Amino acid sequence: MGQRKAPKDGDRKVGRRALLIGGTAAAAGTALLARDELARLWWRTPGVEKPRKEGEVDFAGARWVAASDANWRRADRPDDFGIDMVIVHVTQGSFDSAVKAFQDPGHRAATHYIVRQDGHVTQMIRELDVAYHAGNRDYNERSVGIEHEGFVDRPQDLTDEMYEASARLTARICARYDIPVDREHIIGHVEVPGTDHTDPGPHWDWDTYMRLVRRARTSPA
């Protein structure tokens, strides 16, 4: 590529005052970056934990019920792992049985949220933490998992209230992490590489669900 001529101001001498100001600004910027980095990393020191508020939820209106800490991993997402995906599950059981399983340390799996058939949303793991839900470590680290009460072979379990509540939840997650609202970023458990699960199953209405998510995404929070 040919060289471009410098603009007329390109040869202007930089005064000592400008150098001092520029140097001070650069030093201040570096100090701010260093302070922010320390603020993010201090809690990773052995024996130090990032502050958490007990019972805090990420989705307004959700009820907090804690999963066993054997079923998730403490993290600081999206700072340490970027979140770019929502994974849809179906419980293959009742809401109560799913909660009980996620509170069982021997279950070794849980999602961030469960949506009941009546549209009630329960959060069991904070979004900043990694839930063991996808059966794939990479997908666990980069996703938020949402269970839906019901069975994959019972289309009547997939209620309008459930679709609408879940769509609002997914829309807020997408807004929070700037996730595109499309089928590449909102997927079913069955689509995770290496999984042997089939949920959300053949009766999950993706067209309706995605339409509801897009509508909720463009509506006021």
TrEMBL record:
Enzyme class: hydrolase
SUPFAM superfamilies per record: N-acetylmuramoyl-L-alanine amidase-like (SSF55846)
Start and end residues of each N-acetylmuramoyl-L-alanine amidase domain: 72-201
CDD domains: PGRP
Gene3D superfamilies membership: Peptidoglycan recognition protein-like (3.40.80.10)
Reactions listed under catalytic activity: Hydrolyzes the link between N-acetylmuramoyl residues and L-amino acid residues in certain cell-wall glycopeptides
Keywords from the UniProt entry: Cell wall biogenesis/degradation, Hydrolase
EC number: 3.5.1.28
SMART domains in the record: Ami_2
PANTHER family referenced in this protein's UniProt entry, alphabetically: N-ACETYLMURAMOYL-L-ALANINE AMIDASE AMID
Protein name as catalogued: N-acetylmuramoyl-L-alanine amidase
Organism of derivation: Streptomyces levis
